[in-house]
Amino acid sequence: MASADAAQPSPSLSLDSLPTTPRGRAASSGPAFGFGSSHSPSPLSLSRFSSSRGAPDSCGGWWRTSLPRLRSLLGSRGGDRRMRRKRIIGGGGVGAAAGSKGWHRRRTRGIVIWGGVVVFFFLMNWWMFSRLQDTPIRLLRRNPGASNVSVVSLSRPSILEKWNIYGHGQRSTGVMFSRLLGLAAHALAEADSRPEPQDLWQEPIGPTTWKRCADERNWERCDGRNGYIIVSANGGINQQRVAICNAVAIARLLNSTLVLPRFLYSSVWRDKSQFGDIYQEEHFINYLKDDIPIVKALPSELQSLDLEAIGSIVTDAEIMKEAKPSFYLKQILPILLKNRVVHFVGYGNRLAFDPVPFELQRLRCRCNFHALRFVEKIQETGALLIQRMRHHVSHLGPLEHNLLGSFAEKLTMKGKKIVPSRYLAVHLRFEIDMAAYSMCHFGGGKDEEDELEAYRAVHFPALTLLKNTTKVPSAAFLRSEGKCPLTPEEAVLMLASLGFKRKTSIYVAGAQIYGGKLRMAAINSLYPNLATKESLLSSSEIEPFRNFSSQLAALDFIVCAAADAFAMTDSGSQLSALVSGYRMYYGGGNLPTIRPNKRRLASIFLKNSTIEWKEFEDRVRKTIKQTKQIHERPIARSIYRHPRSPECMCTVE
Fold this sequence. Notes:
26 helices; alpha/beta
């Protein structure tokens, strides 16, 4: 049911008006208030707090305004050439005739030269393409004695078919990727006898040392006298985590009492878990008691109020993305003082990161890194997963104690001398919702495009409307700009080029990968020591978490946060962002995170048909090295992702 003040459709719609990630948007085409509400303002509606202007048309608008200018420019130049030609031909006399013949000869010569150039490049392209088709086969023929040939055999009926991920008649694209994967397999076989790069498992050392200090307070407890804040958070566990900590800050800002947050049911996540199913309620309430009062339910005298009728329901669409604190003081506080309660429905990323008062920003960090602790069921299973990835040996630090509580002690095996095992965690953000939302193509041809379009029509109707009514960027352009999620094939090529050995233990986080086993064939072949929560746990151990995607995501969060190295494949992923921030806060500079620049990687992958492995390796390593270095939080960036800032962490002299 929409609120009484529901706005009319906006006159324009653009890509920029939509969230950047699929789980930051509406989970279904349901009502604006309640289940399926968006994390960002609906592109089709305005709110009682917003202006009536439509969203700017930033997708192609410049082209429509520039096209007439381009035409006039070309027209004027063409006119100049025609005038010069008239002067030559129509000049009269013998000179004019000679000039005309000379002009025709030059024109004929130019046409012949250009024709020759085109034919030459066409023949060269055909010759090079014909040689590329057999390149992987020739690689093995040159090295018949290479080790692991049985594993990386590139015979035409096996690996070339298995790795021809761009099938459906697009043979050239598939062969090109098979070539790079074949080169990666050969490089991994040769690397077995060489040491790994020295900085592979290390975080670059910065000029400043930081320590965590978000647990330090420098204010008095607020009494919450202005009323009660209710929050119903949308999305998955990571969006909900951001919403919770933003709500804590808003409650403090408005001197109000926070009711224990609720989670909305999502048609994508299909998880009925509530706060107490994932986080420890008593720890949350007690840890923040010196900041804000928190209660589990509204007082009985307020429970009978019709919040919609009195105007106390504020939907996510009515608050601009990353609204400033002044918005809440001017727009929300009067409602709170009048009605004693405000209910934020579908609440998410609706509080700016700058400018925010210092202590309020620190409170957000305190909530995220200290107050939110997983319930014991999740802690125990998370400890079991880490134990099996490390082969029963682990170093214990503040991160493990915070993530696992008392179950952290189970990671150590006293009295046994076993060589510690380290592992790499990779978050493959390549589920169908991500693939569909990106509007990119992944080589599956018409069948894939139709499947993703059908998914968009159900789960992202705003995107479908946008695509049908507006000229949107092409899939090729989106890929060149780094807007497409890395496929499992691209991810494994990145890992191999960085120098991770074939025997590396890798934990793969994420839900069901779009494309299934076929899509995972390359990474499974190149790195056989691959594990997931489903492969590490027995059926009885994972049974309590089945049908609870948020709780399963919590297990991924634990294993990724505790990994010796963590690689994200999509910088827009909330899980990857929160995990990298957690590792930064608790890692003490010893937990490296690989953050690929997808735009730069895209320019490298575009050369997959011709680039040699050494050049590919060097370029990828250079790109990753630039993003691996950790700097102080940039202005207006997420404090949850970049906690290395004075509000959240302190420098060590």
